[in-house]
Design goal:
Layout: H1 2-6, H2 10-37, H3 44-69
Helix pairs in contact: 2-3
Length: 72
């Protein structure tokens, strides 16, 4: 967000967006491996599915809730 405020070049914004997407993707992969290794093999597909659902719902609902909580 700070890059968007202070950047005077579109390339800086593209780099910032690319780094944010890479960070989110890397975190998702790392955390899904951790979630999968925390359950027995028989429950692993369900654990990965539930983790992915919660991860994506957090990405969808988090900004919506933050927007609703900010007085405007």
């Amino acid at each position: 967000m700070l890059t968007a405020l202070f950047a005077h070049s579109a390339i800086l914004l593209l780099i910032a967006i690319g780094l944010a997407v890479f960070g989110a993707t890397a975190a998702n992969g790392t955390q899904s491996l951790e979630a999968a290794s925390a359950v027995p093999d028989r429950q692993r597909p369900t654990a990965i599915g539930l983790f992915t659902l919660v991860y994506l719902m957090g990405g969808a609902l988090g900004p919506a809730l933050a927007t609703a909580l900010v007085p405007g």
